[in-house]
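Re: [ENG-882] Designed sequences occasionally contain unexpected residues at chain ends

Forwarding the minimal case from QA. Structure tokens:
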């Protein structure tokens, strides 16, 4: 495959030209007209991501609510729980401010209803995701050609984990968007770095700095890219002192000013984050995995059936720079004890780009063979092997994406939507959550300033000390009886059915009666099966 002769960074339209196929063959690709410009590509991606966001109705990770929307709700409306991280100053307000602005707009337009409060944040995130999809397409076009770009975008939109996770309001999702945009502008990631416009690298540095401000661990990605640029660039001093230093200081100053405004004192979040997560291994409090987990379980699960296509694409393309980035990120994150799928989300699109390369190569090879043999079936849009590959990928990823987005662990989202509506009708006075901490959304979904109480799980200064959540899970009945001695009697109690059996006698003795039950999951995750979420209401006087 021949390399592109010229790359235009700020182009309004992508010049779609396939150097491996004849003009006659290109005319047989009506589906490519859908992506004949950046605007069309963006619009198609936006429509699909907005639908994607509406289909995501399940609970995945507490940080989606507790480290983003809950903080944003506190900023916008003056109430919302701030977890211990915000008291220790290891989180920046930059990311929650995005959604706080959205909440303010909704309130001004009198649209802060239960439906909009639960759906609007993911719809906003879907807009960011569409930009990420566009830049994956543009990056694939620059590194390879438009043929590969089409299939890279297909892989990104079809992959089950991208569908399941990308439109969620996690800081990792926005980090992924910024990674795709930023990598596009870094000359060192191109096939011909010297042919990039002069302003390209400045944009890349600015976006990298913003990504690190939003999520400090993003520095792992940009360390690789920055060192590669330093090795390949001829103007190293200019790069360090006239680009990285001033842009980095500017973004750091902006972050510090925002955090000074919100915290009420000067806070250097990246330093606090580094101390807690790296120097003291604070993240290990939430569980650890074997060092090889990302290579043997985490990343393969995220790629799912795209895995063999991605590996084939890496081998065939011989593009070691993006391949090296994936290996670098997985390798460094493997050093940390605490591991999660979402931590390596930013390099998943890069792996899917290689999947697109292998599918494009397969299609090109079959088209060439068909032409040489003079086959009467040369007019078929998708050769047989490609059709089988597409069918295989669609039939495995779509059911997985829909099941995980619509069914698995949806009860904790449904129960808060229900309680929000009940609170709007003045049927809820206070709520107690007798379940593991952060198992449901909170004020950002309820959107009523009612007293609520959940079981705390903040890390203790003394090792070995059990938090409330752990003590409850060890003996629900005893914990509840002790807790009720000094409680303010709630009007509603929420729990999983797995603990309900132990608490039934306690609930009856305190005049609570079941009023609603919501399906939650068919399969257990890391505890006993939590099949449903149950709501009990106080029936006494």
């Amino acid at each position: 495959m021949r390399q592109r002769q010229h790359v235009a960074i700020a182009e309004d339209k992508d010049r779609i030209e396939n150097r491996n196929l004849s003009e006659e063959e290109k005319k047989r690709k009506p589906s490519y007209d859908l992506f004949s410009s950046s605007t069309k590509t963006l619009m198609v991606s936006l429509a699909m991501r907005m639908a994607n966001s509406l289909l995501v109705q399940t609970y995945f990770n507490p940080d989606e609510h507790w480290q983003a929307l809950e903080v944003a709700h506190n900023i916008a409306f003056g109430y919302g729980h701030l977890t211990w991280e915000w008291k220790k100053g290891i989180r920046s307000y930059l990311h929650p401010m995005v959604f706080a602005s959205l909440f303010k707009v909704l309130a001004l337009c009198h649209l802060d209803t239960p439906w909009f409060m639960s759906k609007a944040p993911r719809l906003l995130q879907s807009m960011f995701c569409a930009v990420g999809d566009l830049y994956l397409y543009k990056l694939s076009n620059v590194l390879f050609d438009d043929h590969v770009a089409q299939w890279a975008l297909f892989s990104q939109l079809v992959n089950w984990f991208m569908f399941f996770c990308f439109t969620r309001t996690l800081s990792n999702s926005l980090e992924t968007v910024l990674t795709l945009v930023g990598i596009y502008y870094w000359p060192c990631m191109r096939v011909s770095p010297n042919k990039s416009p002069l302003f390209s690298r400045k944009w890349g540095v600015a976006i990298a700095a913003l990504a690190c401000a939003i999520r400090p661990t993003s520095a792992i990605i940009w360390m690789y890219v920055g060192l590669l640029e330093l090795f390949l660039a001829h103007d190293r001093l200019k790069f360090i002192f006239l680009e990285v230093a001033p842009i980095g200081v500017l973004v750091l100053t902006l972050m510090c000013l925002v955090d000074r405004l919100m915290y009420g004192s000067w806070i250097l979040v990246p330093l606090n984050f580094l101390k807690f997560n790296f120097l003291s291994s604070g993240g290990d409090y939430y569980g650890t995995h074997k060092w090889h987990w990302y290579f043997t379980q985490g990343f393969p699960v995220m790629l799912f059936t795209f895995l063999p296509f991605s590996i084939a694409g890496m081998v065939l393309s011989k593009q070691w720079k993006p391949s090296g980035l994936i290996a670098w990120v997985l390798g460094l994150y493997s050093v940390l004890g605490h591991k999660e799928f979402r931590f390596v989300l930013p390099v998943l699109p890069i792996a899917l780009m290689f999947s697109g390369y292998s599918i494009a190569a397969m299609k090109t090879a079959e088209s060439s063979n068909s032409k040489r043999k003079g086959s009467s079936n040369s007019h078929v849009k998708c050769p047989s092997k490609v059709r089988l590959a597409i069918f295989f990928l669609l039939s495995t990823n779509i059911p997985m994406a829909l099941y995980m987005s619509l069914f698995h662990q949806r009860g904790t989202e449904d129960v808060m939507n229900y309680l929000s509506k009940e609170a709007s009708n003045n049927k809820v006075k206070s709520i107690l959550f007798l379940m593991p901490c952060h198992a449901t959304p909170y004020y950002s979904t309820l959107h009523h300033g009612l007293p609520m109480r959940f079981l705390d799980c903040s890390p203790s200064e003394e090792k070995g000390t059990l938090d409330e959540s752990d003590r409850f899970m060890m003996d629900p009945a005893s914990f509840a009886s002790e807790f009720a001695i000094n409680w303010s009697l709630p009007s509603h109690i929420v729990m999983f059915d797995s603990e309900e059996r132990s608490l039934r006698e306690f609930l009856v003795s305190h005049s609570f009666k079941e009023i609603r039950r919501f399906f939650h999951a068919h399969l257990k995750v890391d505890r006993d099966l939590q099949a449903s979420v149950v709501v009990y209401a106080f029936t006494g006087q």
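QA comment: On inspection the terminal residues look reasonable. Residues 1-32 have pLDDT under 50 and may be disordered. Proposing we downgrade this to a documentation issue.
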